[in-house]
Amino acid sequence: MTRTTIDLWVGFFVALGLAALLFLALKVGNLATSGSGETYAIEAKFDNIGGLKVRAPVKSAGVVVGRVSEIRFDPEAYQAVVKMQLDTRYRFPRDTFATINTSGLLGEQYIGFEPGGDTDMLKSGDVVKKTQSAVVLEKLISQFMFSKAAGDGTGSSKE
Question: Based on the structure, what is the number of domains in the chain?
Answer without folding.
Answer: 2
